Amino acid sequence: MAYNASGGAVPDWLNKGDNAWQMISATLVGLQSVPGLVILYGSIVKKKWAVNSAFMALYAFAAVVLCWVSWAYKMSFGDELLPFWGRAGPALGQKFLLKEAALPNSTQYHDNGTLETPMIAPLYPMATMVWFQCVFAAITVILLAGSVLGRMNFKAWMMFVPLWLTFSYTVGAFSLWGGGFLFHWGVMDYSGGYVIHLSSGIAGFTAAYWVGPRVKKDRERFPPNNVVLTLAGSGLLWMGWAGFNGGDPYAANTDSSMAVLNTNICAATSLLVWTWLDVIFFNKPSVIGAVQGMITGLVCITPAAGLVQGWAAIVMGVLSGSVPWFTMMIVDKRWRLLTAVDDTLGVVHTHAVAGFLGGILTGIFAEPQLCALFLPVTNSRGVVYGGLQVFKQIVCGLFIIGWNIVVTSIICVAIQFVIPLRMPEEQLLIGDDAVHGEEAYALWGDGELYDVTKHELYSDNDASQTRFPSSGATQVV
């Protein structure tokens, strides 16, 4: 009975396997953010910023969900308003959400006007498509936050999230995925190397410039407060990438399987290469370095996941483990622009550099048969197979970079007229307790303000609880 139509809940066009995989993929991507990046951000920063960093990620996720269904989904995947932008509108009514999913501007035509590839119309309801694309939008904003952790005014962040989603993310999504001019030109971005990673890296770096740096003490020494939890968060990020790249064919098909395998090949290779470089040059295998290498591998393969062969995924892993390592460890300390801007987690390296690198390598290694399984433009191929795709990839990357620099700057300047982008100095010195009135751990030190009138000093033992009056010295029991 589960496979029979009943009351209209199982229409003829519904493929239950595709629908199940797409909802699972969306859930996996959602888990990358909540709790994945919430845990990662809360643990990789200095202890006094654990709550603030985790909460910035959680708040962004919730804010994006509401904005997405209210207006941003149709700006990204709806009817065309401009060649790079869809027409805004809500995605909330059952009439819209229960019909078969479709991207109305995705039909591809030859230059002579004849049909090249039909409109994208997956075999599941619009509700599945809306949610799947929503979690991609949410993780993009959360990745951006990594550049401004440890000093951005939370109230300014509350304003920034919907503005950036509306005026930046939707443009990249529609242009490359929703049937915009880059989609029809044949640019390859399988799962978001440009739409998500390049844009978040460039926008994060730009926002970091406008927000300003952390306090000197934090910038000089910013150790993670819990490396084991950092590994837990990064593990959720890695495993969740199966949905990130495996869900983008919009079906549980052979190309989806190829994408998932390539994702893991590239990530593993990149992690190993980054670790080897740390051992060769610093004589120590760094856990945080391994996490960075894992992330750059995942980012680099994202635009190519279902478009390249396994051997190419290994080559991309070698490059994603070495090129961003070089920019982060060497160039970042020597180029004045990079040293002047305080990019807290180095998002410009792990996402912008790795994302652009992945996009270019896609233009080199994209295999024609795999391209035919996914892309709207027929006969697409990389340089290795006699194509000129890499030129399109570079042009698209420059467009995404330029758009994000300009729009992010305008948003930050506009917010400054309403509220400061950077926290006041007294909050920067104290951290979570001053900003939220909450702290991650029941431990004291690291510059936090311990208010004995609020917290009191006490000791627990088997017999009784002994409270101590306020005094000039800390009493340890």
Tell me briefly what this model is.
With 477 residues, the chain is mainly alpha-helical. 60% of the residues lie in helices and 4% in strands.
Core attributes:
mainly alpha; two-stranded antiparallel ribbon; 6 strands; disordered C terminus; Ammonium_transpt_CS; membrane; transmembrane; ammonia transport
Explain the overall architecture.
60% of the residues lie in helices and 4% in strands. It is mostly helical. The strands form three sheets. It has a two-stranded antiparallel ribbon with strand order 1-2. A two-stranded antiparallel sheet has the order 3-4. Strands 5-6 form a two-stranded antiparallel ribbon. Helix 2 packs across helix 4 and helix 5 (154-176) runs antiparallel to helix 16 (389-416). The termini are far apart. Pfam families: Ammonium_transp.
Tell me the layout of helices and strands.
Layout: H1 16-44, H2 50-77, E1 80-82, E2 85-86, H3 94-97, E3 108-109, E4 115-117, H4 126-145, H5 154-176, H6 181-185, H7 193-211, H8 216-220, H9 227-246, H10 254-282, H11 287-301, H12 310-329, H13 336-340, H14 347-365, H15 368-372, H16 389-416, H17 425-430, H18 432-435, H19 452-455, E5 457-460, E6 465-468
Antiparallel strand pairs: 1-2, 3-4, 5-6
* Gross morphology: globular
Strand order across the biggest sheet? 1-2
**pLDDT < 50 runs, ≥5 residues:** 458-477
- Sheet with the most strands? 2 strands, antiparallel
Number of helices: 19
Number of strands: 6
Query: Radius of gyration from the CA trace?
Result: 24 Å
Helicity range: 55-70%
- SSE order, as H and E? HHEEHEEHHHHHHHHHHHHHHHHEE
